[in-house]
Amino acid sequence: MTAPAGRPGIDVPDPRGRTGLDREGRDLTGNARVRVVDVEVLACDWSVLRRTTFDYRHGDGHWSREQRETYDRGDGATILLYDLHRRTVLLTRQFRLPAYVNGHPDGMLLETAAGLLDGDDPREAIRREAVEETGRTVHEVEHVFDAFMSPGSVTERLSFFAAPYDGSAPGAETAGVAEEGEDITVVELPFTEALALIRTGGIADAKTIMLLQWAALDGPFGLSSREAR
C-alpha cells in the first residue's frame, strides 16, 4: 500500500493525528519589534521541532533577519507533596536519558511528580500525575507559580503546585504507567535532607530545586509559615 503523498503534520496527519503544525506562531502580534516571516516543521512525532524565520528590530532601530528552532512538547505541571507534621517531602526517582547522555552519572534523577497536561486543566493534570507517579491522591492543590523552563529553545510552560500528603498512611514504593515505559521509585525524604541534596548535586532537576527552595522561603517550611502558626 502506497503511503499518502504530503507532509506529515502539515498536509497529512502526523503520528498523533495533527495537521497544520506549520501555522503555529505565524500570527503573533504582541511585539511590534518582531515580524514572523516563515515557520517550517523540521520534525513531528510526539513533539514538534520548528524553525521560525523572523525580522527583529534591535534597540538601536535597525532590523535583522533571524532564525530560531523551537521544540514544542506541550505544557506541563509539577507538584511538591509535603507532610508538614513529619517535615518530609515525597519525590520520585526515574531514569532520564537526556541527563544520562549529558554527563549525569546514572541518569536516575530525584524529582517532584510531573507530567504533560495532555489537554487537561493544570490542576486536573497534576492530580492525575500525583496518583500515577506517587500513588497518592491529592484534592486541594496550591498553585505556586508558572515558569518557562528553557525559553531559549523549548516552548513548554510549567505550572508549579504544592499539596500536603499524609505520610502516616501506607503508600506505594513504586509507581508509573507501565504502558508508557515508566519505572518510578517513590522516595520520601526529610525536608532538610532534600535541601542538602541540592547543595551536593544529589538533586539536579530544576523544577524540584525551585519547589524545594520555594518551600523553604515562602512555602510550608518557610519562616512566614512558621510565624503564621
UniProtKB/TrEMBL annotation:
Subunit organization: Homodimer.
Keywords for this protein: Hydrolase
Region spans: Disordered: 1-25
Alphabetized Gene3D superfamilies for the sequence: Nucleoside Triphosphate Pyrophosphohydrolase
Xref: SUPFAM superfamilies: Nudix
Cofactor(s) needed: Mg(2+)
Domain Nudix hydrolase: residue ranges: 72-211
Organism expressing this protein natively: Streptomyces galilaeus
High-level lineage: Bacteria, Bacillati, Actinomycetota, Actinomycetes, Kitasatosporales
Name listed for the protein in its UniProt record: NUDIX domain-containing protein
PROSITE patterns, alphabetized: NUDIX
Region forming the signal peptide: none
One Pfam family per UniProt: NUDIX
